[in-house]
Amino acid sequence: MTGTNPGRHGIYGFVNYNPDSYSQIDEKLVTAIPLRGRTLFDILSRHDLRVAAISVPITYPAWEINGFMVSGEPCPDTRTGLASPAEFAKSLNRRYAFQSSFWSKSNDEIIAGLYEMDDLRTELAIRLLEEEEIDALFLVLGSTDRVQHNFWRFYDPDFGARLGLPHEQKYEQVIPETYRRADRLIGRLIASLNDEALVFVISDHGGGSAATVHLNTNAWLHQAGYLGIHATKDSIAARLKGPVFFLRRALDNTLGDRLRKYLPDRLIRQGRALVRNIAQIDWDSTRAYRFPMYPPAEGIVINLRGRQEKGVVERRVYEPLREVIIEEMLGVRNPLTGEKVVAEAFRREELYEGPHIHNAPDIILILQDGYTGGSQISGALVTPVDPASLLKVNGEHRMHGILIANGSGIEPAGEIKDAHLVDMTPTILYGLGLPIPSEMDGKILTELFTEEHLRTAPRAAPAQLELQVAEADGFLTPEDERAMKEQLKRLGYL
Ligand SMILES: [Zn+2]
Q1: How far is the CA of 263 from the centre of ligand 1 (A)?
Q2: What is the pTM (predicted TM-score) of this model?
C-alpha cells in the first residue's frame, strides 16, 4: 500500500510490537491511522484518479479518498458500514469483513462463508467499475489464504496422517477448488475491463503445512548462557505481582483481539504460555531473550541497559553480542534429526529502515520449514507441536507469494525474479506514468514491462509525498470498544 518497509510506516503485523518493554507488545489496537494519507489510494486520488479499495487488510477506519473504501480486517464486529464516504457506507447493507464468531463455525460453514464473501466483494467491485468510472480498483479475495490455514491437512493427507489427525476425504479438494473459484472471479472482473487495463494479481505470502516442531528459542538462549532463570517456584510467584500482571493483561487484550479475527485457539495458548514462561526469566542475569513474531519469523531482543527496564548489556557490547548470537543461531541443529533449524538470521537494520525501526526486535530469524518458535525455557531445545492444536489451523504462511501482470506495456511472457511487496506501489505508479514519492523503499519492477514501454515511457521525476491526512469516517467509538471487550469476555480472554 505504501511502497515502504515497516520501519518507515510502523506496522509490522496485527499487533503493535514493542521490544523496548518486557510486555513485548502494546495494548493499542492496530489500525490504519498511521497509513492514512500515504497509501497508493491517496497518491492516485491526488492525481485525480477515481479509486476503489475493497477489503484491503488494515484499512480500518476507512478514510476519505477520491472514490470508495471498504475496510478490511481487522475491524470491529459491531458495525455494518466500515466504509467511506458515509453515503456509500450507508448504501452497503452487508458486512464485507468476517465477524470473529465466524471462525468457530463448522468446516462446511466456513467454506460457504468464505465463498460467499469473495462473491460479495467481487460483485461490489464490478458494480463500482460499471457505475462509478473507477480508474484504479483494489480487491482482496481472502479465501485462498484462509483455506490454506484450515484445510491443509486434508489437501496433504500424509501430513495429517503423520500427526494422527482424522481425515475427511470430502475436504481434499477445498484448496484447489478455492483457487479455481478465485480464478473465475478474477476472470469476471477482467471481463469488465478494457484490453488496455493494467492487471496485477498478487499475494502477500504463500502457503504450506503448519510447523510441527517448536524451536524453544529461550531454552537455547538459556543453555547457551544468555538467559537466566529463577531458581525456585516461590520467586516466580513473587515476580508475578510485577510486570507479568501487566504483561498478562496486554497479551490478553491485544492477542485476544488478533485471535478473535484469525487463529483463536492456537495463539491464545501461545500467549498464555509466553506469559507463564516470561515469569521464569531472571532479568538481572539475562542478556538476550525471545521475541515472538509471526511464523516463520522469530525474534530475539538484547536486554540493553538504558533501554530495557532491567537491562544489563552495555551499549558497546550490543553489536558484538548480536553478531555472536546470530552466528550461533545459524548453527543450531535439531538434536533428534541433526537438521539445521534456522534458515536465515538478520540484524534488524538489514531488513528495516526508518523511524519505526525500534519496533523491530534486535535479531530476526527465519526458521526452516516445519519449525515455529516455542515458549519453553527450561525444557528441551525442540519439542513437538501438540497435534490437537493443529486440528483446526494446520496450514501456515510461506515467504514467497505470487505475482501475475498483464495489460498495456507489460511483457506478455517471461518470469520475474526478486520481486518484493514494497515494489508493487512504485511499479503501479510507473505503469500509470505517475511520479514515485522519494520516500518509497520499493523499486520499479522493470522486467515486467516491454522494452518499447521502457523506452517510450520514461519515469516521472521523483515526487515529494505530500501528506494530506484525510478524516476517517467513524473511528472506534466507546461503544465499539465496549462491544469488542464484551466479546473478548465471552470468548474467555478477559
Ligand atoms: Zn493467513
Answers
A1: 9
A2: 0.85
